[in-house]
């Protein structure tokens, strides 16, 4: 309805403008005298500007948005510059410019607003900047830029939306922490290794095809000669460091902390030289196989940047229905913000077949455990489930307990 009425509204205002010009001219002609003609000539510049503005097109504006880079970490600041160019010198009294942000960015703290009033006058080029102080995690789309102008009397108003799409990805904030495995399977006993994961090159258990990155000293020349292909020795690993992380994606007040800790955890595991995978069930199921390297880290961070707390099932149901847990022979690390008895029971049942399960419980800063949580932690210990409470802002101490073992 509004779109249908807009053309009639413009025509009506133009008719009113012509009527006011004729009215002041008629008053000056019939009344005569200094006052009446002064009134006509005083109104005439404003009227002529309104007429000129009514024929002026905002399509001549060339508007562009400059964003320094495409990827950020949550909590970083973003400075956006909007540049405007035009071809004519037609004077513009004011120009109201607003960068159309998505809802999340629009509600974030802005030092300089994305909506501003510019007085361009006769200038053909001008710009303005706005600042988002702390970027929220996610994939954010800048769709368009709205411009609006008018005259002093408010008789002529023009509005135009310029399509200018830009996209940024804001990765979750992470904390530098040192990953220390809780247990080893090669040596006897429960130990915590601070060393980077390495193969034991004194124990060759077989041969395999050559892969980029293999050392020259690993080549098995006899096997290579027999098969007429370069073969390298396959070594025993001292410890089973492969980790599979399962993140709770149900709605929780500490969901951003859960995502941030998961990002810190997978980064620490990969930085140590081990391999890791990730399972999340939110709007859709996403299971990343166990791999290592920078490519895996980038893939996991990109997924964590876009994840939302919209799981259709509870966390304990995920542990119950996922058949992949039976197939994996790795250490499982669970990350959640809610500790419940069904979750402890499902984790304990999984631990009977896979060894002790580690569950990270994310709490707010200085948030003490409730009496119910203390009881559940005692129950978890009895069910062979290790529960580690981690407070937001103290992620670096998540593996401090391992040091004491």
Write a concise keyword list for the protein shown above:
405 residues; alpha/beta; Immunoglobulin-like; 4 domains; five-stranded mixed beta sheet; 17 strands; 30% strand; elongated
Quick overview:
The chain has 405 residues and is of the alpha/beta class. Helix content is 34%, strand content 30%.
Tell me what portion of residues adopts beta-strand conformation. 25-35%
End-to-end distance: 72 Å
Provide the structure class. Answer: alpha/beta
Quaternary status: single chain
Number of domain units:
4
**Total helical elements:** 11
Helix fraction, binned, reads 25-40%
Main-sheet strand order equals: 14-13-12-15-16-17
**Dominant shape:** elongated
Major sheet description = 6 strands, mixed
CATH architecture of the largest domain: 3-Layer(aba) Sandwich
Which parts are unreliable, with pLDDT below 50 for 5 consecutive residues or more? 184-201
From the alpha carbons, calculate the radius of gyration and give it in angstroms. Answer: 33 Å
β-strand number: 17
Averaged pLDDT? 82
Please identify which CATH superfamily of the largest domain we are dealing with.
Answer: von Willebrand factor, type A domain
Instruction: Write the element-wise H/E pattern from the N-terminal end onward.
Output: HHEEEEHEEEEEEHEEHEEHHHEHEHEH
**What is the C-level CATH assignment of the largest domain?**
Alpha Beta
What this model shows, in words?
It is built from 11 helices and 17 strands. The chain is of the alpha/beta class and 405 residues long. The chain has 4 domains: 2-55; 58-171, C2 domain (Immunoglobulin-like); 200-237, no CATH class; 243-403, von Willebrand factor, type A domain (Rossmann fold, 3-Layer(aba) Sandwich). Strand 13 (276-281) and strand 14 (285-291) form a beta hairpin. It is elongated.
